[in-house]
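dude i think i finally got it to work??
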Amino acid sequence: MPSSRKESSLGEYRSLLPYFSRYRWRYLGGLACLVTIDAAQIVIPQLIGRAVDLITGGSFRPRSLLFIAFWMIAVTAVISLGRFFWRYFIHGSSQRIETEMRERLFDHLLTLSYDFYQKNKIGDLMARSISDLGAVRMSIGMGLVAFIDFVFMATSILVIIFIQDARSAFFAVLPLPVVTLLILVFGHTVANRFLQAQESYSRMSDTVQETFAGIRVVKSFVKERWFIKKFADTNDDYREANMELAKLEGFFFPLVSFLSGLASVILFLVGGRRVIEGAMSPGGLVALFRYLQMLIWPLMGAGFMVNMIQRGAVGLRRVNEVLRTVPSIHSPPASIRENAVAAAASSSGTAPAIEIRNLSFAYEGKGDALSGISLSVPRGTWLGILGRTGSGKSTLVKSLVRMIDPPEGTVKIFSVDVREWDLGHLRSLFAVTPQDSYLFSDSIKNNIGYGLENPREEPLGKAADISALERDLSNFSGGWDTLVGERGLTLSGGQKQRVAISRAVILDREILILDDSLSAIDADTEKRVLSRLLAERKGKTTIIISHRVSSLRHADTVVVLEEGRLVERGSPAELAASGGYYARMAALQQLEDRDG
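look at this
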């Protein structure tokens, strides 16, 4: 899902219409407060002008000035109160929309299929979830405020100054069309530069995530310096991209201030002459100066508005790219799902737990990972899968739970094609321990019981006993509550695998899959785990994938895969006598065990 470098489209904001509709009353309330404040601010120069005329007139009473001062205090109070409420309504709504969008994005990411995460980096997804959504929030919050100020206040001020003295106003606003032209050019350039900055931020985030996720490897290979340099390079790229934005802003805003100052100089020359000629009062000139100073913020705000709206459009487009991604694997229509459940129930235990017919599968851009696999696994039996690295063992398992999508009619669970099952229902039939034994940064108790609604101590203890983990608990400082660190950083490889086995066993699913989940466990512990699994899972189907023949000793049937093809099939005793790959591996591993 690479980001497009074409100019961002403001049409992306159409995707926010449901949110604006939901919070319309809050936005309308905030906009009403904002317009009221702008109107109140426009009144103040008139009051100041009247006070100046009273003073310069030479004959005035203090009561008249007190009356004007009272109205100025009242107007200021209205402005202060209005500013609180527009912030509450508008900023509050933009914060709520950002929160809802982030939740929606997270929910959607969880629905996307396995192949999506193979093509997209985690750091980039994090950047879209945080930085890009922050830009969207600013555009529908402060960006909207700047837009209203620009439209309402700038228009009102221009109308008022032309009504008060058209000649002075005409000359004073001559520099302002240049500001308009600058705003248009500025907005076009900001969008492209901000997209580059966000892509740089994504690359930097991905470098950080990758480094810390693989910190063990980084330290064991003493590659800290290399990763420091890699981060420094991506950090420099991010800095350079933001410096380009800063240069634009550094050029634009001072230039707007200069042009505004130039307008004040023109007003001083033209308006001063008008006062001398008696065509305008001193108070009127002061009021015009005040209005011209007030006009600076809407003009500056226009730059902020264009900046924030263009940044928001870029961020929103990057977020919408994810939200518009359709899962490549999804549940079938409801009628098909209901028929699948009924067909599985009617099989009454007579159909195989797993049936594979001529299964072939290839990853995108690669050769066949599986080729012509046919296999039947009766309910309640143990299946062992052996093969070299890359022979297709894990791909075969992924096809059972639809982590990858097998061709129609090639894989059936309880007599029903996996493509006809509801995804959640299908996967609830399985308990899987993947190769990497991923653990969450939480306690051992929560890692084992996270698949349960309410983990209780009794099943936790039973699961730990089956995986032979209970003997390690006394060595952990916090027992069940010991934190395992991110990805199980504080545990050994064998302990991580046994926590993962406990996590799968406690679910007590119809089909248990151990994908090379005993590789880091010593031989004695492996025997203990397998014997307890055998006793615990009588009548339920178990699949064990392993490089070690010893892990497959209890299997009813063992199949051997080679380059995606099924080349051997039989009981452990039959394969040991066949002279094939299984027999060679058994002899080799027996020799290794004997020689220590």
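The CA atoms of residues 117 and 499 lie 25 Å apart.
im so relieved honestly
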